[in-house]
Amino acid sequence: MTTTIEKDAALSVVNLSKTYRNGRVALKSISFNVRQGDFYALLGRNGAGKSTTIGITCSLVNKSSGKVYVFGVDTDEDFGLAKSYIGLVPQEINFNQFESPWNIVINQAGYYGVRRSEAVEQAEKYLSFLGLWDHRNAMSRSLSGGMKRRLMIARALMHDPKLLILDEPTAGIDFETRLFLWEFMQVLNKQGITIILTTHYLHEAEQLCRNIGVIELGELILDTDMKTLLRQLNQETYVLDLVKPIHTLPHGLNETARLNDETTLEIDVSRGNSINSIFEQLTKSGIHASGIRNKSNRLESLFIELLKIEAKSYSDGDRKWIGWNSVQSHYTPWPERKLRDSCESGVRH
Ligand SMILES: Nc1ncnc2c1ncn2[C@@H]1O[C@H](COP(=O)(O)OP(=O)(O)OP(=O)(O)O)[C@@H](O)[C@H]1O
Ligand SMILES: [Mg+2]
Description:
The protein is of the alpha/beta class. 35% of the residues lie in helices and 25% in strands.
């Protein structure tokens, strides 16, 4: 992984480390570059170090060591200039909830030295566009969660930043608004704004982002472009809805297919293999499908593979959380447990 500053990068993070005062090591010398004009996904599990990286970039968190450059500006040397390039949508709601959206965005513009007349124009544009115009004079506390998040996006755009950093902007956002925000982010990106996005919705990252960095336990374990990454997927699973019920698998598909129920067939297709031959086999056996879909999001499949591998290398107890893949071996569904515990304690139902 690169440790050099890329010329013309919107963001260069070099050997960045962070240990919080309580001793928690959040970042272990991570380095990456985000090119100008890029749409970059910064992914990783809860507690991986994404927000810490963003916090340091925006000087909300003090780094322990390393360097951060924003459009070539060393944040240690001229943080004011570096900061003027950045628009931040933080993970946590951090505006004064007793102020109105109008005041919040206008004050933000003032903070960045935007002229009043320009600020008013920007406020009108973004509050309208983000569906907050009718609420502009309300107390922000009264906005819904999704509206508050949109207000933070409007606020981040008030000074026309060249780099927009969005830390989980679509968390808790309804489906329709999410689609709207996807489109909005794409428009901003097409206008030339570099975007860094953190999200736990991998489908979102796959849809929007060209490059991707994955942080795990404070280390950057992957820094690549989305296309190359998706090409590594060894196998995809398709789910077929069958026109008529079947009770046994067709000849030749025993190894790769499973019947979920009598009208739902799941088939694994290895990379490089054609899906046509599978359809030929099905047709020969008199089986017809009325619909087909990908079982899981492709990036999600890769992510699971990747983090399973990483989990092994941290089996020294660094990661206390048992992780999703061990849940099955630890967990007894509650009705069963309740029944068993009750039986053991002699309670009768
Ligand atoms: N102020 C703090 N003091 C001490 N430890 C902290 C502080 N902020 C974060 N941490 C710890 O640093 C690590 C990285 O946290 P961070 O918030 O950067 O993770 P994240 O990748 O953004 O996670 P999430 O997806 O849950 O938002 C975690 O172990 C977290 O508990
Ligand atoms: Mg975070």
